[in-house]
Design goal:
4 helices; 5-stranded antiparallel β-sheet; HIT family, subunit A; 139 residues
Length: 139
């Protein structure tokens, strides 16, 4: 994940960033508006962050949610998945990351997963990741 964050930091899918964290649309986004929020440094979990870094992360996370709300000019539903290291083993192999996405395709349409997505893992996204990032940067 460290290599992915470093590569994305220099790419066109960055939505927002701080000194210590990056918010970006993944290259193979499964949802029209999906953002990963991750530390630039290899950090295993939230407790490994000091208070200043936790505040910085939460400001960036809140900024991503504000951008989701601005997409459709109303509070937008979202799903957030936090990925952290296991408590006792292989902590050095993990990289803290939040995956945030909205099930909305447009202001009045939800994205429903089809058989190819739920059964076969082949996701179809009608918004290109670069275009989604550009749109989210507008806000």
């Amino acid at each position: 994940m460290c290599e992915v964050v470093a590569r994305e930091a220099a790419g066109p899918r960055v939505v927002a960033e701080t000194d210590g964290f990056l918010a970006y649309v993944p290259e193979a986004a499964r949802w029209p508006y999906e953002v990963y929020v991750a530390p630039r440094a290899c950090v295993p979990d939230l407790p490994a962050l000091d208070a200043a870094r936790r505040d910085e992360l939460m400001r960036l996370y809140a900024d991503v949610l504000r951008r989701f709300d601005a997409l459709y000019e109303h509070p937008t539903p979202y799903v957030a998945c936090w990925y952290q290291a296991p408590a006792r083993t292989k902590r050095d192999a993990a990289h803290l990351c939040a995956r945030v996405y909205t099930p909305q395709r447009t202001a009045d349409k939800l994205k429903f997963l089809a058989t190819s997505e739920t059964g076969g893992g082949a996701y179809i996204n009608d918004v290109l990741p670069d275009a989604a990032a550009a749109r989210l940067r507008e806000f």
